[in-house]
Amino acid sequence: AMLSPQQASPRQATSPITSQAEREQALRDYKLTIEYKHLKQHAPGGVYLLPSFDDLRLFHGVIFVRRGPYMNGIFKFQLRLPAKYNDSNTWPVIIFSSSVLNPHVNARSGELDVRSAYAAWDPHKHYLVTVLTFLKKIFYMKRDNFVAIKPESAANRDALEAALSDPVKYRKSIEACVQESQNILYVADSSGQSMFSEEQVCHQVLRELLLQNVNNPASVSRSSVIEMVKEAEHSK
Considering the domain boundaries, does residue 165 fall inside one? Predict the structure, then answer.
C-alpha cells in the first residue's frame, strides 16, 4: 500500500507560542531580560535592583543615599512593570516600602510620581535605568527644584509646602525619615528578597581583607573576591 504525501512527510515541528499576541509578549519578555542585563552595568550609583523569584515584571530594590539631606538613608522599594512594557506609555510603577518624605512620593501609598518626570513614556528613550535615575534624583533635589512644582500636582502637597515655607522644619522631618529607614532596615519585607542582617564577625573580617588586598576595585577579579568571602565565612 502506498502512503499519501501527507502521511509520508515528517511531522513539522510546531512552536509552543501559537498566537500573534503570544509571540509579541515573548518578544517583550526577551527584551526585558536584555534590559535588566544591561542595567547591571549601568544602574545609578547606590541603587540596587533584584528580580522577583516568580514574576518577570516585579523587582525589589534599595537605594543607599550617600550625601545631601537624605544622607545615610536606606530606602527599600518595589518596581512593577505593566504587562506590555516597554510599549508606549507603559510607565513603571515604583512604590517605597520605607517611608519617604518627599514632594514626589505619595505619603499614603508610597508611590513615586513617575509621570511628573515623564508625561509620555517613550520606549525608544525610556528604560529601567531611566526611571531609576529619577528615583535617585529626588533624594538630591534642593529647594529650587521644588519651586516649579504646582501644589495641586504634587504627590505630597504637605511636603512641598513644608519644603518651600519652612526649610528648617522640613530638614528635621527628613532627618527623622532617614532615622526611620535605618531603624526598619533589618525588618524583612513580605518578599523576603531585600533582607539585611546586622554586622557579624565575618563582615568585619571581609572588610579588612578587602581593604588590605584591593587597591583598585575596577581591576579586582571575581575569583579573588570569592576567595576572600570564603575566608571571611570561616571566621564565623
Answer: yes
Per-run averaged pLDDT (10 residues), the chain, 236 residues: 48 62 87 88 90 90 94 95 92 94 95 95 94 96 88 93 93 95 77 61 83 82 85 77
Residue 3 included in any domain: no
User: How many domains would you assign to the chain?
Assistant: 2
Residue 43 within any structural domain of the chain: yes
**What SS3 class is residue 80?**
strand
Q: Using an 8 Å Cβ cutoff, are 145 and 164 in contact? A: no
CA distances to 23, 88, 121, 127 from 27, rounded to whole Å, are 6, 15, 19, 16
Looking at the structure, tell me whether residues 150 and 50 fall in a common domain: yes
pLDDT confidence of residue 8: 45
The rounded distance, in Å, linking the Cα atoms of 86 and 121 is 9
Same domain, 217 and 184: no
| CA–CA–CA angle 78, 190, 182 (5° rounding) | 70
61 and 79 Cβ atoms separated by less than 8 Å: yes
Q: pTM for the full model?
A: 0.76
Distance between the two ends of the chain, CA-based, in angstroms?
77
Peptide bond before residue 145 is cis, with ω within 30 degrees of 0: no
Instruction: Please give the residue range of the domain that contains residue 172.
Output: 21-198
What are the cell numbers at 174? 527628613
